């Protein structure tokens, strides 16, 4: 099953992350699921049944670091697959 999920950032903290053994600034965003009112929005069904759901996402990626701010909308595409049996 594939879902398009929109989150809105409500809190940001910064700390130290690591990449290849080097300390890097890391941004941590706490987000809530957006519940759109437009039934044509790809996030409509997920947003309506997942109200109040939260997600935390961290990055050291400089290309998006300054794009994350309180109120920003993050859109993710998620695919859920059945777990594979282990021997």
Supply database-style keywords.
87 residues, mainly beta, four-stranded antiparallel beta sheet
Share of residues in helices: 10-25%
Instruction: List SSEs in N-to-C order.
Output: EEHEHE
Biggest pleated sheet: 4 strands, antiparallel
Distance between the termini: 25 Å
Write a compact overview of the structure shown.
This protein has 87 residues and is mainly beta. The protein has helices spanning 44-49, 62-65; strands at 2-19, 22-33, 54-59, 73-79. It is built from two helices and four strands; from the N terminus they run E-E-H-E-H-E.
What can you see in these coordinates?
The model has no long low-confidence stretch (mean pLDDT 86). It is built from two helices and four strands. The protein has helices at residues 44-49, 62-65; strands spanning 2-19, 22-33, 54-59, 73-79. The protein has 87 residues and is mainly beta. The chain is flat. The protein has one domain (2-79). Strands 3-2-1-4 form a four-stranded antiparallel sheet.
């Amino acid at each position: 099953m594939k879902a398009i999920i929109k989150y809105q950032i409500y809190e940001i903290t910064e700390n130290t992350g690591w990449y290849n053994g080097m300390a890097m600034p890391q941004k941590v965003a706490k987000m809530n699921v957006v519940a759109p009112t437009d039934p044509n929005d790809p996030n409509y069904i997920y947003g309506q049944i997942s109200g109040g759901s939260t997600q935390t996402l961290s990055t050291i990626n400089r290309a998006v670091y300054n794009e994350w701010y309180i109120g920003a909308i993050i859109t993710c595409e998620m695919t859920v697959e059945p777990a594979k049996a282990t021997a």
